[in-house]
Amino acid sequence: MTSISRRALLLSGAALPLALSRAPVAHAQNPAKLKLRLLETTDLHVNAYPYDYYRDRADDTVGLAKTASLIAAARAEVPNALLFDNGDVIQGSPLGDYMAYSHGLKPGQVHPIIAAMNELGYVCGTLGNHEFNYGLDYLGTSLAGQNFPSVCANALKPDGTTLVPPTRVFTREMVDEAGQKHSLRIGVIGFVPPQIVRWDQANLNGRLTTIDIVEAARQHLPKLRAEADVVVALCHSGIAGGEPKAGAENAALYLAQVPGIDAILTGHQHLVFPGSDFANIAGVDAKRGTLHGVPAVMAGFWGSHLGVIDLELERQGSAWKVVGFRTEARPIYERTPDRKIVSKVDATAAVLAAARTAHEATLAYVRQPVGETKGFINSYWALVADDPSVQIVSNAQTWYVKELARNAGLGHLPLLSAAAPFKAGGRGGPDYFTDVKPGPIAIKDVADIYLYPNTVRVVKVTGAQVREWLERSAGLFNHIDPASKAEQALINGKFPSYNFDVIDGISYKIDVTQPARYDNEGKVAAPEAHRIRDLAFNGQPVDEAQEFLVATNNYRAGGGGNFPGADGKTIVMEAPDLNRDVVVRYIIAQKSIDPTADSNWSLAPWPKDAVVSYVTGPGAAAFRPAGLSVEEMGHTPEGFTKYRLGHAG
């Protein structure tokens, strides 16, 4: 496969359009027709290189350097193409943490992922929720390095003005189907999930507020529509069905109902649209790629896809109207029937060069050893059995918070610890699992266990709230019908694993033959259902009035995931350290760890003849969990291994 040079990449948006014009000059009486291609990247999360820093090896499923080749090819196919980014750029990989916590970013310096993006000719971007993880000052310095602007209409400073401009209008020369040139005005508006003020309270409290996405759209769209020929919404928010809700995190479908938008570029959910992920949602055409009739696209994550929306415009009087469209998400790789990854494009040299120095420094950073582990740490079975990868986080949080609680006068309260498996397959694919071998343990391994730059928080809750917290977490599981003889998938694929909190310090069972008490959004769906059984503390049933401290992170404590007892109002301690750094410090203090799960939770038995299936990575075969009978059922087209799970008894 031939790499596309930087010169070809730059020329593809300038010299080629005129050469590719196919139609003759239009007659005066015929309306001008023009095709406009919108290109989207989203949720790059600092993945400039096709590299997995956690496993310290090349990875053909990620990387803006790969997406850049798709961008060049997409530009070469049409006379008119514009490139946008939909947010979550500066955080999300060890390279991002290296820059924020080790290297630093001084005024005038350009962040390496921004330097890589600057090679590609973006028109505009918007802000994602993870842009705020390192604070507003760091974000400001990062944005200053862009050679393209960003817009966001619903993040407000204390004086009521937006943090960055809410909208922008770009005038570009376009070529119509007859080869004639036209000056086209492209209006752009951007949005971020309003929940950022909860998720990043420590960084944003008193410095930033948010408003509902749809409300912000209604405020700004009339003026933007009057100034633009085409309006594009950069919506770092996903697609969810149901009735519109004020302050919705995933509001793209509701946004599509606001008049004046010609195309919506979505993201945040790390999924692909058009595609089956969004089938059977009212108002969504998952095949054509529309939200209430408005063309939309979601381009995966980490550079896995390029979003493409082709608009057909026709001149009607003094205005341009959209008379046709086509949407698609183009992948940078494909998976063969024998589960091998095949790259569809080569990396673009200019993008690699822009981030090379930081990439190499990140490799040195993540390879630093901090201790050793006597046992394996992996997450292949973390969703169905107590697991070492979660246990080590809980142990570290308990170790860290215990002394802080005593110094704060809270040492008399029993201390629990909540942690979740972050890498557990799902949309990340069959290789997306923590897998650390015995021996020296490095920063990259800790980052593989704890992905996010969360900070430690402690909440004070009652026994009743602990029970409901666990009920919300148990929404991970589908309802297993004990009378059915058909195969039943155990895991709800729409429930993110980072919301499957395991609470250490108590013991309990989860009965999946009961319906889920909470739905995927955290609302009570089955008031009479109770999956949590045998909830006990120190061997005795938990008193619902008893108070507990729970060590967790800022995302959960601030309301992330909508967990009972964790809405920002129950926080009693805000620690300055990252949860990940706490794990590092714990390993350094222990020097050697033996990450054995304590089996404080388990799945309650179901009938022996029920066919309950679970999919995990191929590497799971060597680590079959105690307490469950496991029988391999074959492989899925995506490369996962499927097992039938059962219980003794």
Automatic annotation (TrEMBL):
It is found in: Cell envelope. The keyword Zinc does not apply. Residues 37-270 form the Calcineurin-like phosphoesterase domain. It comes from the Bacteria. Keywords: Hydrolase, Metal-binding, Multifunctional enzyme, Nucleotide-binding, Signal. Its main location: other. InterPro entries: 5'-Nucleotdase_C, 5'-Nucleotdase_C_sf, 5'-Nucleotdase_CS, 5_nucleotidase/apyrase, Calcineurin-like_PHP, CpdB_N, Metallo-depent_PP-like, TAT_signal. Residues 433-564 form the 5'-Nucleotidase C-terminal domain. One of its GO terms (biological process) is nucleotide catabolic process. It catalyses: a nucleoside 2',3'-cyclic phosphate + H2O = a nucleoside 3'-phosphate + H(+); a ribonucleoside 3'-phosphate + H2O = a ribonucleoside + phosphate. Its cofactor is a divalent metal cation. One of its GO terms (molecular function) is 2',3'-cyclic-nucleotide 2'-phosphodiesterase activity. Residues 1-28 form the signal peptide. One of its GO terms (cellular component) is outer membrane-bounded periplasmic space. Belongs to the 5'-nucleotidase family. This is Bifunctional 2',3'-cyclic-nucleotide 2'-phosphodiesterase/3'-nucleotidase. The lineage of its organism: Bacteria, Pseudomonadati, Pseudomonadota, Alphaproteobacteria, Acetobacterales.
